[in-house]
Structure formats: structure tokens, C-alpha cells
Design a protein that fits this description.
Radius of gyration: 14 Å
Distance between the termini: 30 Å
Strand order of the largest sheet: 1-2-3-4-6-5
Shape: globular
Number of helices: 4
Number of strands: 6
CATH architecture: Alpha-Beta Complex
Number of domains: 1
Length: 121
């Protein structure tokens, strides 16, 4: 996935906002809280960082092309970085980005969720 494809996908999720920060990273937020970061990789290949469930954090942290996110995981946060991935893994990345959006939006106050039209099932 390219950064343009990543940005297009993240913009399609409900109640998101975009900012460039932290050394020119593509940062996506829901309700003012970060759920995805494009960047933070020293190589010229794209890298994508997202919040993960406890289960996914444990499983993905041991898989090729995934690692506990630099900086965040060392501070006890359950964030994973996907790096150096072939294009045929885009659907997998989209799943994890949606999950991160869901996890982060679920942590917002009920009032904020309702205001943004989130998690109204």
C-alpha cells in the first residue's frame, strides 16, 4: 500500500481527521485520538502503525513484516507497525486499520461517540 492509498482508505472511515506531524508522518485520528500513523520508518518503503487488541498485538508482534511499534510499544502501548510488505497484503492492513479505528473510537466518551455518529449499533 502506498501512502496515498493509505490516506484514501483512512479518509473513508467515519469521523476521521488528518494531520502531518512527527517528522512528516501521515497521522489519522478519530475523535481527536490517533488510530493510525503512516511513516516512522528509516527506509524509503512505507510503514504503517496502528493500535491493536491484546490478542493481535501478541500474534502480530511475532510475524514477519510486523513488529511492536517503535517508541509506543516500549512504553507499554499495544501498537504494531507493518513494514516492508508486498502489495497483496493491502486487505490485511485495511482490516487492522479498521480495527484500530474501532478500538480507539470505542474509548471515546459515549457523548463524543454519539456526537460523531460512531458505534451506534
Amino acid at each position: 500500500m502506498t501512502y496515498d492509498e493509505y490516506n484514501n482508505f483512512c479518509s473513508s472511515l467515519l469521523a476521521t481527521s488528518y494531520i502531518v506531524q512527527w517528522g512528516n508522518c501521515h497521522v489519522w485520528k478519530v475523535g481527536g485520538k490517533v488510530f493510525a500513523i503512516g511513516g516512522w520508518e528509516k527506509s524509503d518503503k512505507p510503514a504503517f502503525t496502528f493500535k491493536a487488541s491484546d490478542h493481535n498485538f501478541k500474534v502480530l508482534g511475532e510475524q514477519p513484516r510486523f513488529r511492536p511499534a517503535p517508541y509506543m510499544a516500549s512504553r507499554g502501548m499495544k501498537w504494531i507497525q507493518q513494514y516492508d510488505s508486498p502489495a497483496n497484503t493491502d486487505d490485511e492492513l485495511k482490516y487492522y486499520l479498521k480495527e484500530s479505528h474501532r478500538i480507539v473510537s470505542s474509548g471515546l466518551t459515549r457523548k463524543k461517540q454519539k456526537e460523531l455518529g460512531l458505534n451506534q449499533d
